Amino acid sequence: LLRKRVHLIVLDSGLKQKKKKIKYKKGICSIMWFFIFIIYLFFFECFTFLFIVCFSRSMLVHNDYAFNEIILFINNYYIVEEMLIFIFVNRFCRLETSQ
């Protein structure tokens, strides 16, 4: 009986250690997703800002049509950005709650 109990205790501790390792890996994964999300946002904002600046200097001198087209383009971009933010946040939260 003593041998069986010791064996069970060792098994229990092994299972606990395995669970801890899995949690740790999930934590790293969620942190990684979070950093990817922040980097993506930073680059996306920089790109849109540069895009607006470049086009406003080159095309928008005396052209209202070009201005309207660019505003539409930027609006579409921001819709895509909102969708991607939602996907990233959803992924990040799902990983956090699964811990």
UniProtKB/TrEMBL annotation:
This is Uncharacterized protein. The chain crosses the membrane at residues 28-53, 65-89. Keywords: Membrane, Transmembrane, Transmembrane helix. It comes from Sipha flava (yellow sugarcane aphid). It comes from the Eukaryota. The keyword Membrane applies.
